[in-house]
Design goal:
CATH architecture of the largest domain: 3-Layer(aba) Sandwich
Order of helices and strands: HHHEEHEHHHEHHEEHEHHEHEHEHHH
Strand order of the largest sheet: 3-9-10-8-7-4-6-5
Strand content: 5-15%
Structural class: alpha/beta
CATH topology of the largest domain: Rossmann fold
Helix content: 25-40%
CATH superfamily of the largest domain: Thiamin diphosphate (ThDP)-binding fold, Pyr/PP domains
Oligomer: single chain
Largest sheet: 8 strands, mixed
CATH class of the largest domain: Alpha Beta
Amino acid sequence: MWRLNRKLIPNGGKIFNFRCYHTRQGCFGYKPVDRQGKPFQESTDVINNRIKNSNLYRLATAYHDHGHRIAKLDPLELTNNNAANISELAIENYGLNLEDSTKYSVNGIIDFSEQEATIKEIVDYLKEVYCNSVAVEFTYIKDNEEKEWFRRNYEKWHKHEISSEHKCRIMEMLIKSQTFDQFLAKKFPSVKRYGGEGAESMMVFFDEVFNHAMQDGIENVIISMPHRGRLNFMTGLLHYQPAAMFSKMMGRSELPPSAKGTGDVLSHLFKTIDLTMGDSNLHLSLLPNPSHLEACNPVACGKTRARQLSIGDADYSESGLSNKTMCLQVHGDASFAGQGIIPETLMLSEVPHFRTGGSIHLIVNNQIGFTTEPERGRSSLYSSDVGKIIDCPVIHVNGDNPEDLARATKLALLYKQKFAKDIIIDLICFRLWGHNEMDEPAFTQPIMYNAIYSKKSVPDSYAENLEDDKIISNDRVTALKNEYTSTLNSELKNVEKNSKIEMSHLQKQWSGYVQASHENTTWDTGLY
């Protein structure tokens, strides 16, 4: 009412204008984004073909909507995804017949290698793309252009070939992560390390993000991450000195002797590092983990926003389109579905003066929360479902397939960079031990752990696949394990010899900070 009739406002509405938010037109720290823009319009050829082959198009969209429900996402194969129960995918409901040998145009229906295909070829393609070890949810996205972009690029990247060199790098990361866990299990059997065994593929996710980020001109990545696999990530990719970590496991402080303080617990350690690739530099900042699950997420978003302000990026750039700083959030499946701070942070993702240009979320989904099974811990099908409140697309990946995760990560980064919105990768994996290594999980989950104990590890299985494909030899895998074990042994000996250990305390821009020379412990309150 006040907007429509300013005569009712004293002084011609000047006070009203002053007190109103100015974000509609844009202001410092906020550039409005026209989410509507011009109405998205497919080409005439695509529209005509969808009309002509409307039943085929309806079947394809049914796979977009429901294909994930019968996908092979569980590496333990304990989930019962019965295709017979999904009537939306029954081709007879669309008046189609698999025996029909007629070739139909697939323009605007599927991203097929040929311009025409039979009903069987189309169905086989849809099953391969939408119902295999990767599945997606995106059809609830309201913007049609964004939705169509995601479909086409998902089908494109699903077929992307990974080079032999890239496969060898994936294998090395997986093997090193496993070797690290096995080394700690032998040398520090009573330490709660929250190992990454069963979820080693997450190393591939991080590596892909960092490499593609540098290629895309991203300069800063702010990371929040809980305890699971954190030590593997820090030593494997962030170059955290193993000796410093072993020293911490022996009960020593990570702080230098001159610092006043006792230090933090092992799973709270953090790291800042600069990675280089050619002429590109990437500044990585892994924030401390407070153990209060997901509490670090808004801190990571806030630091991302602060970094954007300091370098004139994103909403602080002239165009508002600059995107040199990225937030990376890692979650557990139970906490992502159960912690209220998740929807709270998601709801700020598009709010003026809070948005950061989108976060990439990785859910390390080991299908259990301490001892609680998914159906006892949430009411939704997936732990990622809360992301749908902001139209966040989700890519579900079977953790036994690190190459699929590599493709999914590239797609996630492309989406985030183009639309400046959040996207979720749901990495469905398992947890080899209990909540920590001191627990016996078979007491409460005997069926699950019977399946876990009877399967090969992800690194060993992937290495065997490369051996079968003649990409690597068994000798190379064995040598890699031995070399890394030798390196870790050497680092451990350095600790035992009290050799100099890296102390990352108040470095770079924090180097000017000093602790107070004394402190008051008794305060004069005036009360007796």
